[in-house]
Structure formats: C-alpha cells, structure tokens
Here is the input.
Amino acid sequence: MVELRDVYCEYEKGNPVLKGTSLNIYDGESIGLVGANGAGKSTLMKAMLGLIPYTGDILVDGLRVEKSNYQAVRKSLGFVLQNSDNQMFMPTVKEDVMFGLLNYGMSSEEAEKKTDQVLSDLGISHLKERHNHRLSGGEKRMSAIAAVLAMDPSHILMDEPCSALDPRNRRVIINTVLGLDRTMIIASHDLDMILDTCKRTVILSEGKVVADGPSSVLLTDRDLLESNGLELPLRYYQSGPAGS
Amino acid sequence: MSQIDRAASELREMDDLAMKVSPIHSLHPLVKLLVTAAYIVCTASFPKYDLSGLFPMILYPALIFPMSGIPVSVCLRKFRAVIPLLAVVGCFDLFLDRRTVFSLGNIPVTAGMVSFTVFFLKGILCLTASFLLVATTTLDRLCAALRMLGLPSALVTLFLLTFRYVSVMIDELYAMNTAYLLRAPGQKGIHYSVWGSFLGQLLLRSMDRAAELYESMQLRGFDGDMRYAGCSQFSLHDIILTAVSVGAIVFLRLVNFSRLLGGLFV
Here is the structure.
C-alpha cells in the first residue's frame, strides 16, 4: 500500500507543485493519475520514488520514503519513464534488463535466467541481443517495461506509457498493462487508455487531488474534466458521452 | 545523405560488424584487448628507419580480417579521413631528411622516404588493430574487459554511456538541424550567428536527459559501480591464448623476420 499524507513539493522556493496532496493506493489497484500539464502527476510519482524532496508523509508498504529506505522503496516501486531512451541506458536490451538485477546482488546466471523469463513473458525474447538505440519506439517501451518487471516490484508507476506510439503499439502496451498482476499507477493524458486499464482515477489540478473515484464515473463527467483542463475520452466524442 | 545521417549510419555499421559471429568475435574481450594493446605498443616502437622489421607486422591484420569476416573495404572507408592526415604529418620527413640510403635501380631512395613509409605504415597498422578490436567486440564486452583491467568505474561508465547516447544526440542534432534548415531556405549549413544558441540548446537538452538518466539508474540500484553482464571469467584457455599471441607479436618485434627470411636465400 502507498499512503501520501499532506505532501508538498517544490522545485523553486515559494512555488509548490504539490500542495498538500493526500492519497491512499491499495494493493492490487490500477489507478490513473490524470490532470492538465503542470498539474503535478510526474512530480507526485517522483516524490513517491524519493527522487525529489518533499514535506509531509509518503509511506510505501509502511516504509517512509526517505534516504535510509530508498533501496527497499525502489525495489517495491518500479518506474517506467516517459522517454524510454532515458531508461534504456545500457547498449543492449539484455544488459539493460540485467542492470537492476545485478545491482541488487543477483549472480550473472540468475540475472540472465530472469531476463529470459521476463522477455519471454512479454513476448519480446527476439529483442534480447538487440542494441537499444536501434529499437523502434514500441520495442523500446516494451523493453523498458521488461527492465522494470525483472526487478519484481509490487507496484509499477508509468509516466505516459503510450505517448508517441502508433495505435498498434499503443494497443500492445495496453494489453501488457492489463496482463500485469500488480498495483499500477499510470499518469497519462490518454484518457481512453486510462479507461481501458484503470478502475480508479485520480484527477490532479494545481498540485491537489480534486477528484478520486471510479474511472467510469469521473472520465465521463464532462464538466469535471473541462474545469480541470481535460476533455472527455475520444471514444465519447464518436458515440456521444453519457449525460451530454 | 547529410553528414548527420552518415554519422548515424556508420555507427550502425560498426554495431552490425561487432554483432557478427566468427572465431574472433567469440574470443574473450580481454584477450582481444590485451593482444591489441601489445600489437600497438610493439608496432609503434619500431625505429623510424626499420621498414624491413615493421613489414611482418602486416601478418596480424592479414590473419584477423579473413578470420573475423570483416571486409577490408569497410576498414579503408573508415580511414578515408585519417589517411591524408597521416600523409601530411609524415611528409615533412621527405623534405627534411634527404640523405640517400639506397637505390632502387636508378631511383635514389632517401632516408626521408623510408621514415615516411615507416610512419605511415605504423599509423595504418595501429589504426587497423584498433578498428579490428572495435569491429569484433561489442562495447559492453569491451567495457567489461576494461573493468577487469582495473580501469576506474567512472571512466568506463562514461565511455559506455557516451557510446549509448551518441546515437540519441545524433537524432537530437538531426531534428534541430532539420528545424533550422526548414526555416532558413537557401542556406548551406548553420550560420555562425546561431552556433551559440544551437549548441546551448543541445547542452540544455543533454543536461535534462542526463538528469533523468541518472534518476533511472538510481531507481535500479546504481551505486556508482557499473556491473557488466555477459562477460565470462578469464579462463586458463584465455590466458594461454593471450600469452601465445602476445609472444608471437613480441617475437615479430624483436626478431627482424624479413632479414631472417632474406638471409636464407642470400
């Protein structure tokens, strides 16, 4: 479980990005974090991972996110970055997936076995020896997910997992997310994707949680979405949104 | 094809060569690294007039090229910029050292000609050896070998990440260049007045990328020491192979093989 209580974060003094955010994320949930640009979605994720300083309390499985607990917290929370190029920093997919495993003390043999298993589970075994800089956008994203999954985190945080992907690769990522049996926290502007993958949605606006509830309810509420800089998911523009 | 495209394509070509399968590719990277280092040191150490002694060093690339399946033409193409440079640097000897040392028929051969040839050949051989090392070893394996040799982790990590991000930077540069050219029709290249902001933008983007990359490494347990996979232990077999290869190179350096062979017939 992840608990956030009255979390404040600021990059510049006197200009907080998160302004007293409180949220509980229960095990096994899939949560969509939505909000306009600058609402604080990515900042919230970074604070949960201990990548930026914050005030308030963030607890991951009962452990406070602070320097002494970073290793344990980061083992529990896997983070898939928006830009896979920044995540896949080793020359090959195999090296990259093994990177975290070796850092957490696994032997080379065990790490390679685990890598094979994760790549096979995601159906991308053929990418194992490929160079990262020669993968397509979709392949990079899948490899980045594999690198995170290999570490067996109990929670997976994804920042815009479908950005810059073509429809087919977007669908592959959505199906992959649906097949993951973990707590998922997905920040995205792709509200259709959130509807497909998350039962619960949290709307952030100017660093605060302004709505928290079932995706099927919040993401069909045109007034709520528009007042927070969002729009109805595209599918409702084609068939007509409920209650519009 | 623009210069940026060409750079990206050459990078991909080197990747492809290093991913080939051959007896040379499958050798332990440390064997290749040590043998290459020994070869370069021995080759570079020949005296400036010892052309006959240097000549047998050609045996090394002559063996490695066919065994690794690397085309010689690719190597020559990569050296197209370096060959003129070597020639320019070495050509001063042609004018400064004009003592005649022997004649080929009626043509007097000066000491400058000999030293120029030795310099040029040494340069080409050393570059070829380095090329063969990189063309037969993937960078991750090369970095693992460098760490085995005790090179500082920070240096090797820098080397590895530089290679990984050269292609990303090339893409970035390509996008910026395209955006510039689309709004600067008729211009050839980037005008010097925008070099500052162009490079500044590239630097800022690189810094943002570096910050995110470091965060990503931290999230996966990076503690300052890169751990490399896919490189086995240096076995007894590897030690013997290294010793024999380095021994053969040192033998070629110490014994004037050409003179020895010539002596058999005179």
